[in-house]
Amino acid sequence: MSNDKSRDALSDAPIPQRNNTAEVVGSSSPFDVVLWLAALVLFAAALMVNQFLPAYWVPASSIWVRIGVILACIIVALGLLYATHQGKGFVRLLKDSRVELRRVTWPTKQETVTTSWQVLLVVVVAAIALWCFDYIIGWFMKFIIG
What we know:
Function: Essential subunit of the Sec protein translocation channel SecYEG. Clamps together the 2 halves of SecY. May contact the channel plug during translocation.
Organism: Acinetobacter calcoaceticus
GO molecular function: protein transmembrane transporter activity
Strand content: under 5%
Subcellular location: Membrane
Structural class: mainly alpha
């Protein structure tokens, strides 16, 4: 058997390697910092729209106008965040996660129900055991204290 990580431990056959698409973002450009600050300002504006905008803009007295402004601020802020290196890396992570989710072997309904009942049984048994220990310790403390 080989200790080589690129070979299967049982059959010593080579394991197909694929290029790792994950990349570490080591540094950000000054433009990224500006985009992050603009996005944070837009998120803060979205939080304050409902309270302050109607005093400065008459059409904002309508709730639908305020909801539209809040949604516009959030959408533009998310778009700015997507334009950063970290934002593109996050979107790549979401896509890779979706691919990995397709590879998961999900349990059948019967396995899920059986496992759920087993967990419920263990929880009930543990609760009864803890209650018994608590009762015995409480009785022992009353016996000692008086």
